[in-house]
Amino acid sequence: CFGNTLPHLPGNELVKEFFTQAAIVLAPGGRLIFQLINFSRLKARDSFDFPDIKTENTLFKRSYARRSDGRLDFHISLTSLTNGEIQSDSTPLLPLTRADLHDLLTETGFGEIKVYTGYDRESADGSEFASIYSASLIVDI
Predict the structure, then answer these.
(1) What is the CB neighbour count within 10 angstroms for residue 6?
(2) DSSP one-letter string for the chain
């Protein structure tokens, strides 16, 4: 589950259901691996702008903005540098924290939860922008 997909679920109960379904199909000792933005790092901010990505013909912008319900809006825009046309969209995200994920994983039978800064398996310390989680199924569902 890569590419910051879990935060697209509308609430913790559906994240828990995803972990439960993963536990059903994994054998004991099987690993669930997923990647997402380190929302704990962004929690104190009302908004965050990613660096722009610019090519010869296109400008790509991304940002987060806090909502009154605690979720974040993820805004994207794609601007054609040849004709000025702008395409944009926004989607709400659930800002899952490390503590949220630890609790939900533990409740659904996972343990040995490890958090890394990247694919090199360097342990995360909370300052990283994105994290990769690895959890072993310790309880047969």
Answers:
(1) 21
(2) --SS-GGGSSSHHHHHHHHHHHHHHSPTT-EEEEEEE-HHHHTT-SEEEPPPEE-SSEEEEEEEEE-TTS-EEEEEEEEETTT--EEEEEEEE----HHHHHHHHHHTTEEEEEEESSTT-PBP-S--SEEEEEEEE-S--
Question: Which among 129, 140, 131, 119 has a CA at the least distance from the CA of 48?
Answer: 129
Q: Which tens digit of pLDDT belongs to each residue from 64-121? A: 999 999 899 999 999 999 999 999 999 999 999 999 999 999 999 999 999 999 888 9
Domain ranges of the chain: 1-43+95-141, 44-94
Count of alpha carbons within 13 angstroms of residue 3, beta-carbon side:
2
Class of domain 1-43+95-141: alpha beta
Higher pLDDT, 126 or 60: 60
